[in-house]
Every structure is written in C-alpha cells, then in structure tokens.
Design brief:
Helix content is 87%, strand content 0%. The longest helix is centred in the middle third of the chain and has 32 residues. Helix 1 packs antiparallel against helix 4 and helix 4 packs across helix 8. With 242 residues, it is mostly helical. The radius of gyration is 17 Å and the shape is globular. It starts with a helix and ends with a helix.
Length: 242
C-alpha cells in the first residue's frame, strides 16, 4: 500500500503525456519533419533499450524461458490485433467526417495500447530496482506523439480544442487504470509478474519496429538516428548509475 500512491502518480504522468502531445498540436500545429523524427527516434531508443536491457532479463529472472516467450508473443499479437482494428476500411463521405473517424479510431487504439502499458508500469514497480520509473519515462515519451496523432485529425475534423483535450484526457486515464489492474494481478499471483514483463516487452518491441522507427527514419533519417542513439545511451546511463 505504501508504494500505491507514487506508482499510480507515475502511471498518471505517463498517461497524461498524451494530453501534452495534443496540446502541442493545438498550440503550434504539427511538428516539422526533423523535430518529429528526432522525438520519435528518442522514444524508440528509450523503449528498445528498456526492452533489451531490462524487460526481457527481468522476465527471464522471474519465470521460465517458455513463459517469457509466450508472454512476448502475446504482447506482439495484442499489438497486431490493435493494428488490424485501426486499419479498418474507411468509408467515403465528407472530408470532415473522415478526419473525425480517423481521430476517434486512433484514440480508441491508443486507449487499448495504454492498458498493457499500465500493466507494464505496475510490473516494473513490483520488480525491485529502477525498472518502474524507466518504463514510465519510456511510455511517457511514446505517448506524446500518440497524443499528436490523435489531436491532428480531430482538429482537422472541426472539433474544438476543449473537446479534443477532453478526449485525450479520457484516453490518458487508461494507463493508471491498467497500472492498478497490474498491481492487483501481481499481488494476487506473483508468478504473473514474468508474463506481464514479457508481454510489455513484446508490445513495446512491436511499437518500435512497426510504428516509431519506420516513420521517423522515413521523414528524416539523420535526426531519427540521433534520437535513437540519445535514447539508448540515456537508458544505459540510468542502468549504470541508478
């Protein structure tokens, strides 16, 4: 109980980064290609390093290789299913309606993404060490471009800024909800921790490989590569000194 409040606050911080991304779009418009690539590369570097240096080793430490592999594949398959949902065929119609539909679908997909991310934060804080704050940081960085991706089509569809922020706020609450659920599950069955860590690794690896890296490298390869290196080094330094 003594760690519940700080853990939930960290999960809320990670979730509310979605609102920060939406605010950036509403205030300054869409980021330039170089800025977006740099930031996305930074998020990709942090997430990839966390997966390789923290999540997978921790999952192996708390469970068998089979359990870790199954959890990893479950995380990948969960993200594939969400992708299929988001890639639903668009219907022809007014441009505003198409933009609104796109924004709502992205918001729904991000909300579903945020549930396993909240579970991952819970698993990270249950696992001794600094994995919990690292995961919260990685997820917060990842959520900023997701908030931008939600806000841009909703704004193009004609929604007012307060409504857009309200929608992103609702999406943000899914992360602490998933964190609370994860804490409950690991407290009920400690063996579940290995599966949660591996599931988080699979989900985050898929996001990096299929979403973050291809897009940021396509827009501006040098900026993306710089961000990737900085994010990776940041996690290595955190592992060395904390």
């Amino acid at each position: 109980m003594n760690i519940l409040i700080p853990v939930m606050l960290m999960a809320l911080f990670a979730g509310l980064s979605t609102c920060l991304g939406a605010m950036l779009v509403l205030i300054w418009g869409r980021l330039g290609r170089r800025s977006f690539s740099l930031f996305s590369g930074l998020a990709a570097g942090v997430m990839l390093a966390v997966v390789l240096l923290d999540l997978i080793p921790a999952a192996m430490r708390y469970g068998s290789a089979t359990q870790g592999l199954l959890g990893f594949m479950a995380g990948v398959l969960l993200m594939v299913a969400l992708d299929l949902f988001l890639n639903s065929e668009s219907t022809a119609g007014e441009l505003d309606y198409i933009y609104l539909k796109m924004g709502y679908l992205i918001a729904a997909g991000i909300a579903l993404h945020d549930l396993p991310e909240g579970l991952a934060i819970a698993a990270g804080f249950v696992e001794p060490g600094h994995l919990g704050p690292l995961l919260a940081l990685a997820i917060a960085l990842h959520n900023i471009p997701e908030g931008m991706a939600t806000a841009a089509p909703l704004a193009a569809g004609g929604l007012s800024p307060p409504v857009i922020l309200f929608i992103n706020g609702l999406v943000s609450l899914v992360t602490p909800l998933g964190c609370w659920l994860g804490l409950l599950l690991t407290r009920t069955s400690p063996a579940f921790l290995s599966s949660l860590l591996a599931l988080a690794a699979g989900a985050m690896a898929y996001i990096v490989k299929e979403k973050l890296l291809p897009e940021c490298l396509r827009l501006d390869r040098p900026a993306a590569s710089l961000g990737l290196c900085v994010g990776t080094v940041l996690v290595i330094l955190l592992n060395l000194f904390f």
